[in-house]
Design a protein that fits this description.
The protein is α+β, with helices and mostly antiparallel strands. The protein is built from four helices and seven strands. The protein starts with 10 loop residues before the first strand and ends with a helix.
Length: 128
């Protein structure tokens, strides 16, 4: 494992069994549903292009109350969407607006590439 896995902290991982047309690396992040239920914890794999296409949301009045790595279901402009607060190496804490289809795509990528997903060690998972 290249670095300690922390809920909501994005990190780059190599696509170990790259197939034609797939990216050489992905951006991984561990998340959980709004409930905070441990059973909803999972890893998502995004491409750099997907992340660059996601809207960065500025919400100073809730930024400090949002937990990193937690997916919040919200309605914006009469559309169901999600907010996800993450930590990035370059830009610190960011809130992304993530559509349901973007979430589904990231979850499906994990299923197709289980060898790329780094597992939390026991102590990290216990303290998370």
């Amino acid at each position: 494992m290249s670095e300690k896995i922390v809920m909501g902290k994005m990190f780059s991982i190599e696509n170990k069994n790259k197939k034609t047309g797939e990216n050489e690396k992905y951006i991984a992040v561990y998340v959980e549903d709004e409930s905070g239920n441990e059973e909803t914890e999972r890893c998502l794999l995004f491409t750099e292009i997907e992340l660059s296409d996601m809207e960065k949301v500025v919400l100073p009045f809730v930024k400090n109350t949002m937990k990193k790595g937690r997916i919040y279901s919200v309605i914006i402009d009469k559309k169901e969407t999600n907010l996800l607060k993450v930590e990035t190496e370059r830009n610190g804490n960011i809130i992304f607006r993530v559509s349901n289809s973007q979430l589904k795509s990231a979850e499906e990528r994990v299923k197709r590439n289980p060898e790329d997903v780094e597992k939390k060690d026991f102590i990290t998972d216990l303290l998370d």
